[in-house]
Specification:
494 residues, mainly alpha, two-stranded antiparallel sheet, 17 helices, globular, disordered N terminus, disordered C terminus
């Protein structure tokens, strides 16, 4: 019997004759169903978090994000079944991280300094939980992902009108995007979502989506962030592994054009600053002020290495509860002052992994790393499971996976463990895994329902074990193991 084994086998329909071919599963037409009003509120909230448009707006005093958050909490409570979210391993690991942050708070070296970070951490988990509770379908996920992409574009456009120059580098004038490094990384991580929107569009829509990434690239270049450049290179490398030959050629052309445009249009200081990733030689064409800045950039790289080792040492000295959430800068300054007599500037760890390990101990580091790795794992499995039975959902998993790989690399140079930056991406990964699994289950049930229970000719006369039959059996078994999905033949053999 030519059937696909599933855990929950659908009821068998009436028997069909052998001359009735199986109909391949037809996915629902995109846009056939619309997201609910509450999901649109979630999308609006995600847009505000990712664009930070209210940071430079006069209506910021209205506390619109807080009002939206209250409405979403009411909607999540009305949904009921709050235990539903705990079925996700991402939810459990992220919850464990926040619980441990609260446990570490009483043991902090400076509880007053840790309190704002503990509150922010709990709020970030609330945002993640609301996304997981309210985003229930693939259409809902697309709505929220589109809002995140628009938010990143909005942040890029804000830098043109409300930008500030920090030693020759441009960022938004206020809020969390005021740091050029974090600003640039957010821009980089928004690119996969625009590529996803392009993959879901027709020819004209693709042109529009790619055109809208131009302001993102320009703002990224003006930010002059070397760490975000590393994340962008890794992101492009991962995409290059998955796309076909035609798309590889297009990526190479885009990379060459972007490089040529950067060399022609960027100021000399930013061009030389980007090259300090590969060399520390100073350029003679720079002014005295720019040479001083470049020397500071090189010294900054050496300082980050020193902070890395200092954070690792703090982790081994305080392996259980750490030194306290958010107080690495103060404790590190006190240690430098006590040992050398000069504390220098008040610096964070500039590494999210060592930030979590030094401030919340090894348990906090493990919970954070588990949340990130589970998000990456599930995004990749969503792509593998759906790439043959539902390519539209598979593309969602692919671009989510590429974004998370860029995130894993980018946060090695930033301290963003407690903000609203991470929970939005974790929420997108978790909701995609849940909705993609439901979609794949529907397809498998539909395929299973079309199977025909006919007498097996091999029962009367054993079939020879040909090489093709053995190879097909191995492929099916490997496909089930790797989660790549199995596509049955379109018709029954006569």
């Amino acid at each position: 019997m030519n059937a696909i084994a599933t855990r929950n086998r659908a009821p068998w329909p009436a028997r069909k004759t052998a001359d009735q071919p199986l109909q391949p599963f037809q996915p629902e037409i995109q846009g056939a169903e619309r997201s609910s009003f509450i999901v649109k509120l979630v999308a609006l909230y995600v847009f505000l978090l990712s664009s930070r448009v209210l940071d430079v707006s006069r209506i910021a005093l209205l506390h619109i994000p807080l009002i939206l958050l209250g409405l979403l909490v009411i909607a999540a409570l009305a949904k009921g079944d709050l235990k539903y979210a705990l079925r996700s391993k991402i939810t459990r690991s992220f919850l464990a991280l926040n619980v441990w942050v609260c446990i570490c708070f009483p043991f902090s070296r400076w509880r007053g300094g840790s309190l704002p970070y503990v509150v922010t951490s709990v709020e970030s988990f609330a945002v993640y939980l609301l996304m997981f509770q309210l985003v229930r379908t693939v259409t809902d996920w697309r709505t929220v992902a589109k809002a995140y992409a628009l938010g990143v574009l909005g942040g890029a456009i804000l830098s043109f009108f409300f930008g500030q120059s920090i030693e020759g580098r441009v960022s938004v004038v206020a809020g969390s995007l005021a740091d050029p490094n974090e600003f640039a990384l957010r821009l980089v991580l928004g690119l996969p979502f625009w590529w996803y929107l392009a993959s879901q569009s027709r020819a004209f829509g693709k042109i529009v989506c790619f055109a809208l990434t131009v302001p993102i690239f320009v703002s990224f270049a003006r930010a002059g962030s070397r760490s975000a450049l590393v994340a962008l290179l890794v992101l492009f490398a991962m995409m290059f592994l998955f796309v076909n030959v035609k798309q590889k050629a297009l990526m190479i052309i885009v990379a060459v054009v972007g490089l040529a445009a950067g060399m022609a249009l960027l100021p000399s200081y930013l061009k030389v600053r980007f090259t300090t990733l590969f060399t520390t030689e100073e350029a003679t064409q720079l002014t005295a002020d720019e040479r001083m800045r470049l020397g500071g950039d090189i010294e900054s790289s050496e300082t980050r290495e020193m902070l890395l080792w200092q954070a690792i040492r703090m982790t081994w000295e305080h392996p259980i509860v750490g030194i306290g959430p958010g107080v690495f800068g103060d404790v590190a300054w006190n240690e430098r002052k006590a040992s050398s007599g000069v504390g220098g500037n008040l610096l964070v760890s500039h590494n999210t992994y060592t930030q979590m390990s030094s401030e919340t101990g090894i348990p906090g580091f493990l919970c954070f790393t588990a949340t990130l790795l589970l998000s990456i794992k599930y995004a990749l499995s969503d792509y593998r499971r759906n790439r043959e039975i539902n390519p539209a959902v598979a593309r969602s998993g692919l671009y989510m996976f590429v974004c998370l790989i860029g995130l894993a690399v980018g946060i090695f140079f930033l301290s963003v463990g407690y903000g609203m930056f991470l929970p939005v991406l974790f929420g997108l990964a978790a909701t995609l895994h849940r909705t993609a699994g439901l979609e794949a289950g529907k397809i498998e049930d539909s395929i299973t329902a079309q199977q025909v229970d006919l007498p097996d000719p091999a029962a009367a006369e054993p079939r020879a074990k040909t090489r093709n039959n053995l190879l097909n059996g191995r492929r099916v078994r490997f496909g089930r193991f790797a989660g790549r999905g199995i596509v049955p033949s379109r018709s029954r053999p006569s």
